[in-house]
Amino acid sequence: MPEFTSPPNPQAFYAQVWDIVRQIPYSRVASYGQIAKMLPPPDGVDAETYLEFGGLWVSGALAASPNDVPWQRVVNSKGEITERDGLEAKRHKLLLEEEGVQFGVRGRIDMKKFGWSGKLKKDIPQQLD
User: Fold this and answer.
1) Contacts from 104-109 at CB under 8 Å and sequence distance 24+?
2) Kind and range of the H or E element at 98?
3) pLDDT at residue 15 is higher than 60
4) How far apart are alpha carbons 123 and 116 in whole angstroms?
5) HSE (CB half, 13 Å, CA atoms) of 74?
6) Interior CA angle at 17 toward 108 and 92, to 5°?
7) Rounded CA gap, 86 and 112, in Å?
8) pLDDT-based confidence at 5, cuts 50/70/90?
């Protein structure tokens, strides 16, 4: 399996991720993997490789997102904020709490209560150019 640090066409992939994340409703969250599964593997990337790297690529897309993308609404599959640095994690949590998202005593979001269904307002292109 080839090692990918980013998708073959990062800007095209990032644009699709941002389009999906913009559709996550206020006070709802999705996981990195959930977002990745909503997109087909980029050209030249087999399904197994995409399954391995897709969530990481979504994380990279959110790190590079424009200001209108509600990046804070994406967390890991356990309902936790993925720690990058302490200040960013605190900001991430604060932004979600301001939206009414609650964290349990273990620092996790109840994904059944606050998770997004993934219903899109419009179709996402099936192929990355």
Assistant:
1) 107/80, 107/81, 108/78, 108/79, 108/80, 109/29, 109/75, 109/79, 109/80
2) helix 86-98
3) yes
4) 17
5) 26
6) 35
7) 26
8) confident
Q: Which class in CATH covers the domain with range 10-114?
A: mainly alpha
Cα 51 to chain centroid, rounded: 14
**What's the confidence (pLDDT) of residue 129?**
38
Q: Going by DSSP bridges, is the β-strand pair 74-75/30-31 parallel, antiparallel, or unpaired?
A: parallel
- 57-89: pLDDT as tens digits: 999 999 999 999 999 999 999 999 987 665 788
- Average pLDDT (80-101) is 88
CA distance 79 to 121: 24
Beta strands in the chain (DSSP E): 30-31, 74-75
Q: What residues contact residue 19 under an 8 Å CB cut-off, 6+ apart?
A: 124
Contact 31, 76 (CB under 8 A): yes
Specify the pLDDT at position 89.
87
